[in-house]
Amino acid sequence: MFTIAQAARRAGCPASTIRYYERVRLLPSARRGTNDYRYYEVADIERLAFVNRARQLGFSIDAVADLLRLADHPHSPCDGVDTLIATQLHSVEKRIRQLQTLAARLRQLQSACDGEHPIRECGILAALSDTRWNEA
Amino acid sequence: MFTIAQAARRAGCPASTIRYYERVRLLPSARRGTNDYRYYEVADIERLAFVNRARQLGFSIDAVADLLRLADHPHSPCDGVDTLIATQLHSVEKRIRQLQTLAARLRQLQSACDGEHPIRECGILAALSDTRWNEA
DNA sequence: TCTTGACTTTGAAGTTACTTCAAGGTTGAT
DNA sequence: ATCAACCTTGAAGTAACTTCAAAGTCAAGA
Lengths: 136, 136
What we know:
2 strands; homodimer; DNA-binding; mainly alpha; 136 residues; Multidrug-efflux Transporter Regulator, Chain: A, Domain 2
């Protein structure tokens, strides 16, 4: 049996996050001691660690809840899991593409200024003020 | 003079966003008519468009406020502008690297399952449950 | 035993950048 | 006159937490 801080250390997240997951019902209510402290067993901590790993992969709380539900039904087919992973991968890839476009624009802006002149002559602000910007 | 919806259309953002920017003081309070409607001139709309372009580049509201302040001082050197752009570019690049790591992990997970078996045998959930995960 | 510091509890509010909603007033065209 | 489409405000909702305040608990050392 572990206190919330011990569980947090083992699972690799703050105690406040564990309380939060309980509050939003991502995790079941923890067993309580007579002092009203939450106590966790190894199995609880493993589930929590599973949640943290999925969150680190960028899954939303709702998606993690789906994953947990799927993991709790060992006999059903795993298409659902595959779909969740694929969906997440697609959204990550899309976000990467957006950010790459962004980075390219920022680099372009950067090349419009050598830092050695007053703002009045700054190509960056000129570009940002240019109404033709949105065409680019 | 334009109403808020007209200004919004010209600047390319919802009217609610303009009100929001005013509320958080990113933009000055708009001039009001006797009907209490907000009215905008071309210069106001240009400033709003500038804000929208910077936001589209991923600058936070605070950073946009900095950009506006800098743009309002045409005689000071433009190092500050350069720094803001560089900082933003670095954070975008960092985020891209994080997401690429994420995508690689998701692809790795994907390869652990061919979708043709029950969850009990699913390599994805096995990997997510594996305590050695965090080493990877 | 007392104290001290580190833990625990709760509910509420703060974070970011908006969007949505409710309830009501204004405008312009028919 | 009436109708749609606009405008106003303040408040609440969104995601996923984090931080805070106020108060109770516990373990160890003097």
